[in-house]
Amino acid sequence: MPGTHLTLPLFAEGLATYVSTVVSPGYTDGQYLLQDDLGALPDSGMRATAKRFLADSDGMTIDPVRHRTSMAFRRWFQAGRTPFQAGLPNRAGYWLGLHVIRVLRRSRSLHEIAAWSPLAGAGGNTRRVAPDCQRPRGRVVESWIALASSESGGRAHFITGNAR
After folding, report:
1. Which of 89, 100, 134, 149 has the fewest C-beta atoms under 10 angstroms from its C-beta?
2. Who's near 83: CB < 8 A, 6+ residues apart?
3. Nearest to 62, CA basis, from 139, 122, 1
4. Residues near 60 by Cβ (< 8 Å), separated by ≥ 6?
5. Antiparallel, parallel or unpaired: β 68-69 and 156-158
């Protein structure tokens, strides 16, 4: 994924995991995520985890200087015996991505979500999306994360402000 931000693997892996839950139901989140401690993370921690992810979301998946996975990517998506960040198991980006897609499914079809391009409009505003648009704009996955991290019912409270 050279030249991409961390939001691309979050969206892609979240969508892939979600699709696995649809085509092969009956397993635990830990089984879908291939890691029991990820499946045991409480949903109540999603908002704080999303905020932490957004702090890293401008990071690249591949370090352009060293030509290897970036430290930000490793913090969220790489496995290993040594924890990459306090309070979260390694690979927490997979867990967060799955939950982002689940929240989006409350108001969008799987077909619609799968058709979105996570790279569309990458030069736009990084933390918000017009709430009435049919197709997300701007740094769209960041907006999806913010939407998923809200607990607002019909209103979308974004990390950097409110939208209606």
Report:
1. 134
2. 89, 90
3. 1
4. 3, 4, 5, 6, 70, 72, 73
5. unpaired
Alpha-carbon distance of 48 to 132, in angstroms, equals: 26
Say if CB 163 and CB 131 are below 8 A apart: yes
Domain boundaries, the chain: 7-118
Please give the model's pTM, rounded to 2 decimal places. Answer: 0.75
pLDDT digits (tens, 9 = 90+) for 68-80: 999 999 999 999 9
Which percentage of the chain shows pLDDT scores above 90? 37
Summarize pLDDT for 2-56 with one digit per residue, the tens.
778 888 888 889 999 999 999 999 999 999 999 999 999 998 888 889 889 988 8
Q: Which sign does the torsion angle of CA 36, 45, 148, 160 carry?
A: negative
